Amino acid sequence: MLYPPPAFRFSVTFGSAGRNRDNAFREVNGLGPELETEALVEGGQNTFVHLLPKAAKHPKLVLSRGVATMESGLLQWCQEVLEGGLAQPIAPQLLHVFLLDQDGGPLRVWAVRNAYPVKWSVEPFQSTRNEVAIERIELAYAGSNRVA
């Protein structure tokens, strides 16, 4: 096993059963918490500022890939949430991001809890480029942790 592992082989599953596997992502970005802090100036001391911890926050998880077919379960879920006008309650999903070894087995696994789409966009089309059409799906989530 290589250490550190290369980051170019990965996959994403979504749903509690993990049956909806989608390996076609170009990039996954936004894994991991960040601790917010509040600055507190020390009274009578002008030489330093205390940074007090607040709550942990999570950036949006951004998935980038070639524009998917209409059969994509992830695309169907995004359409239900983003184009449904909130007629139905949003059903958050459990996602897993797998960093894979050369044989396709998981080296590392991150669980992303209570994720739901907040933005779906397509990168600009340009007649001067010869590249794949890319879509970006941004997900808000309640928390993540590395499970393996």
From TrEMBL:
Pfam families linked: Phage_T4_gp19
Superkingdom of this protein's organism: Bacteria
Task: Name the InterPro entries for this protein.
Answer: CHP02241, Phage_T4_Gp19
- This protein is called Phage tail-like protein
